[in-house]
Design brief:
The chain is of the alpha+beta class. InterPro entries: Beta-lactam/transpept, Beta-lactam/transpept-like, PBP_dimer, PBP_dimer_sf, PCN-bd_Tpept, Penicillin-binding_protein_2.
């Protein structure tokens, strides 16, 4: 190999290259410094407010303040639903850590049921880890004391005071007041973020209908925390707005009288002021202890209620209904007068059996032929023949029109959710259910309140009140007044202007006289009115459960209990100046005159004379099965949540005691209305 050639350096080129690289590096550094300065300017000036807010949020935590739920009182101011202080255990999963590190030790201090743990795990998986989750509601005083000693061992586990809902007369007003229960996933969707702090929500009754008013508005406290997230001091707060208090038109004494008058019989009844529509008493029997549901009912207790053949959870007034029987005859008679088909003095000759022209099948009367019968006698003696012929002459289209005018086939508008509309027989209604045509015999059945009829007790009491008050179809309502704060006056709840059912005073007077004659000699309710120091008007009714076979009739009292007819009664008193109207339905009662009417008399006496009924000895064979009851709620500590009102002390707890520990589970809030139920058409069985 030859000698290596020597390469000479180009000093000028290297210098130019160095200067170029230096310039590029300087420009890059300058651009980076400008960008960094611009970024600092953006953070410190443009986005100062945003980051200052975030910094403040790291220092200050918002703690929700749940408002005190509004009280519910009867017309005399006695508390029907109130709040008592209690404690619950809340866990923040992010701070507490894995459950296997703290849950076994906590279970030795606080009794936790499998349902409590399962519900907590479900909520923990469905929510963020920094949100507190309720592990157990209603911690006992002994558990509170034990936990306070070892609280330092459980970071993220807190004992939170709150107001627990209590119903001093739970079973007596179960289907009126209803109950609150624990918030579930569906409730949270409806409440949104603002309601996430709530633990309970109204599920049934007035608690559900007036939920928004009773709930109030959630407030919050601003709590300053240290670097470890522990609270140091309060730096601000937005107070919670307490829920509104409700004063009902219900009279607690009359409510108790109505329950006592039924004895152990199942059924429903509504007592109302016909002048205003204020509901004075409303029972659906049997009832149930609403305190069972507040913090979650146990599986055993819920199963006991569901297996009860009397269906205590079913609200017969709102969700129920059935054929009204003869109790609608006064209104059908009024329709005959207002339509021009009849005059009060017009008479028909009752032979005991009504025949549609061209047909051999007959519709029979209750006690054979009644002879010449006018409107007043047709109501007093409940002559079916009169109404068979009237309904046939009226035709189903006109019949349907007048019955709807009287409020049937539609909701009454009472302030309870889920009200059943009922059914008024019509060809249109039948076409929606079947492809069969409408038959003339179905019109005849409708004339005595049988066939496809479904009417609620609320509809019956409303229609009867319109007869009593001169023709106004008032709206039944339970809440008479409300106040939005303890220091504010009670304000009446405005009611809509009632429609008129008739403008013919003489026609209405004839119907009233017929109902008064029902309570006199020869009337189907004469036994009920015996010895009464006041006048009364009414109408008995019987809705059959089974049809006759051929020409054979059944004595309702000779039938098995479950096949006995429904006993009904509607009426008002005093007849010359009505202040109370009642509608009663007794399941499997037999006859309205012998079963439902005596109950009405006791209700009238309780309201007008202050005479409370004596308990009725019942047949042990039909005694209701025993039902579970909640343990009494005992005040444990003063709550930190502001209370809307001062709790009156006149209402003592009357809830009987039960076992101390009770695992909890959630249950459906409402039963399904029987709006599609279709009773079998009548075959002309006597209706009283």
């Amino acid at each position: 190999m030859g000698p290596r050639r020597r390469v000479l350096k180009n000093t000028a080129a290297e210098a130019n290259q160095f200067r170029l690289r230096s310039a590029i590096a300087f420009i890059c550094v300058l651009v980076a410094l400008v960008g960094l300065g611009f970024w600092y300017f953006r953070l410190q000036v443009w986005q100062h407010a945003d980051y200052a807010t975030r910094s403040e949020a790291n220092r200050v935590k918002l703690r929700p303040v749940v408002p005190g739920r509004g009280l519910i009182l009867d017309r005399k101011g006695r508390v029907l639903a109130d709040n008592v202080p209690a404690y619950r255990i809340e866990v923040t999963p992010f701070e507490a850590g894995k459950t296997d590190t703290w849950l076994p030790a906590l279970s030795k201090i606080v009794a936790l049921s499998p349902e409590d743990i399962a519900r907590f795990e479900d909520e923990r998986r469905a929510t963020r880890g920094f949100k507190p989750i309720t592990l157990k509601l209603r911690v006992t005083e002994e558990e509170v004391a034990r936990f306070a000693v070892d609280r330092w061992r459980f970071p993220g586990v807190d004992l939170v005071p709150y107001l627990n809902r209590r119903y001093p007369y739970g079973e007596l007003l179960s289907h009126v007041i209803g109950y609150v229960a624990r918030v579930d996933a569906e409730d949270l969707k409806q409440l949104g973020e603002g309601g996430a702090a709530l633990t309970h929500i109204g599920k049934t009754g007035l608690e559900r209908y007036y939920e928004e008013a009773l709930r109030g508005k959630v407030g919050y406290e601003q709590i300053e925390t240290n670097v470890d997230g522990r609270p140091m001091r309060q730096v601000g707060h937005v107070p919670a707005t307490p829920g509104a208090d409700l004063r009902l038109s219900i009279d607690l004494d009359l409510q108790q009288a109505m329950v006592t008058a039924f004895g152990d019989m199942d059924g429903s009844a509504v007592a109302m002021d016909p002048r205003t529509g204020e509901v004075l008493g409303m029972v659906s029997l049997p009832g149930y202890d609403t305190n069972l549901f507040v913090n979650g009912i146990s599986n055993a207790d819920y199963r006991a209620l569901m297996d009860n053949p009397s269906r205590p959870l079913f609200n017969r007034n709102v969700l129920g209904g059935g054929p009204p029987g003869s109790t609608v005859k006064p209104l059908i008679a009024l329709a005959g007068l207002d339509s021009g088909l009849r005059r009060p003095e017009d008479k028909v000759f009752s032979t005991g059996t009504f025949y549609i022209p061209g047909q051999r099948r007959g519709w029979r009367d209750a006690h054979g032929g009644a002879g010449w019968t006018d409107l007043r006698k047709s109501i007093a003696a409940s002559v079916n023949f009169y109404y068979y012929k009237l309904a046939y002459d009226m035709g189903i289209e006109r019949f349907d029109q007048y019955m709807r005018k009287y409020g049937f086939g539609d909701r009454t508008g009472i302030d309870l959710s889920g009200e059943n509309k009922g059914v008024v027989p019509s060809p249109e209604w039948k076409r929606t259910r079947s492809k069969e045509p409408w038959y003339a015999g179905e019109t005849v059945n409708a004339g005595i309140g049988q066939g496809y009829w479904i009417a609620t007790v609320l509809q019956l009491v409303r229609g009867t009140a319109a007869i009593a008050n001169g023709g106004d179809l008032v709206r039944p309502h339970l809440v008479a007044e409300r106040r939005d704060g303890y220091d504010t006056p009670w304000m009446p709840v405005t009611q809509p202007t009632p429609p008129r059912i008739t403008d013919n005073a003489s026609n209405l007077r004839a119907v009233q006289e017929g109902m008064m004659a029902t309570m006199g000699p020869g009337g189907t309710g004469r036994a009920m009115a015996a010895g009464a120091p006041y006048l009364m008007a009414g109408k008995t009714g019987t809705a059959q459960k089974i049809s006759r076979k051929g020409s054979q009739s059944f004595d309702p009292h000779s039938l098995p209990y479950h096949l006995r007819h429904q006993a009904l009664f509607v009426g008002y008193a005093p007849a010359d100046n009505p202040t109370i109207v009642v509608a009663i339905s007794v399941e499997h009662g037999g006859f309205g005159g012998s079963t439902a009417a005596p109950i009405a008399r006791k209700i009238f006496d309780a309201w007008l004379l202050g005479k409370m009924p004596e308990p009725i000895p019942t047949d042990p064979k039909y005694t209701r099965p025993p039902q579970p009851h909640a343990e009494p709620v005992i005040a444990q500590a003063e709550p930190t949540t502001p209370v809307a009102t001062t709790l009156p002390t006149s209402a003592a707890a009357v809830v009987p005691a039960a076992p101390a520990s009770r695992p909890a589970t959630t249950v459906p809030a409402q039963a399904t209305p029987r709006s599609d139920a279709t009773p079998p058409p009548s075959n002309g069985e006597p209706t009283r």
